[in-house]
Specification:
The protein is mainly alpha-helical. It has helices at about 1-30, 50-70, 90-100, 105-125, 135-145, 160-165, 170-180, and strands spanning about 30-35, 75-80, 150-155. About 65% of the residues lie in helices and about 10% in strands. The longest helix has 28 residues, at about 1-30.
């Protein structure tokens, strides 16, 4: 529960708090709200429930905000990165065993092998991801475009993942995700 709360504090409540604090200035300047979400809001991964659900929440909140601030000429735009190679990849790799240790003996027996397999596959994909500057370029474009899009999927796999997440039947999507991550 603590890890889930921490994920929401950073990914949802933090971004919303900053946005709320800036709204008076945004109204005065007809500014733009740029929110960084993830394609994980469209396609949840095994063991990724906290991260993906927080990204889904921020996507939904951004959709509501976009409609709420329109009367002031404010645009609310969502950046949805796919696989991006950052230092967070190495941090996650370092945390695998400590996360498994937090599950206790029974949790490690039940989920340990699947978690390690999924993490290894996910880390490989992220290490082959796009450089972080693709996200920065998308943010710059969203800030400066005359008519910005509502969402910007960026980075390797972003368009494919969001499309699959929207259109494939869930059981088919489950099978594809499990195979891609090496899970039985």
């Amino acid at each position: 529960m603590d890890a889930l709360r921490r994920q929401y504090e950073v990914n949802v409540f933090g971004q919303i708090a900053v946005t709320q604090a800036m709204l008076p200035l945004l109204r005065a300047s007809r500014g733009r709200v740029i929110t960084v979400g993830s394609v994980g809001s469209w396609i949840t991964l095994p063991f990724g429930g906290p991260l993906c659900s927080s990204k889904h929440a921020i996507r939904s909140l951004n959709d509501a905000l976009r409609m709420e601030v329109k009367p002031w000429g404010i645009e609310a735009i969502l950046i949805e990165p796919g696989s991006i190679h950052t230092d967070a990849v190495d941090k996650l790799e370092d945390e695998v065993e400590s996360r498994l240790a937090s599950l206790g003996e029974q949790g490690r027996q039940l989920y340990g092998d699947a978690y390690r397999t999924m993490t290894t596959a996910g880390l490989k994909q992220e290490r082959n991801g796009s450089p972080p500057d693709v996200v920065a370029r998308a943010i710059l474009h969203a800030l400066t475009a005359r008519r910005p899009r509502v969402r910007y999927p960026v980075g390797k796999g972003s368009r494919l993942m969001s499309t699959l997440g929207r259109w494939l039947p869930q059981r088919t999507l489950d099978t594809l995700r499990r195979r891609a991550l090496g899970l039985s």
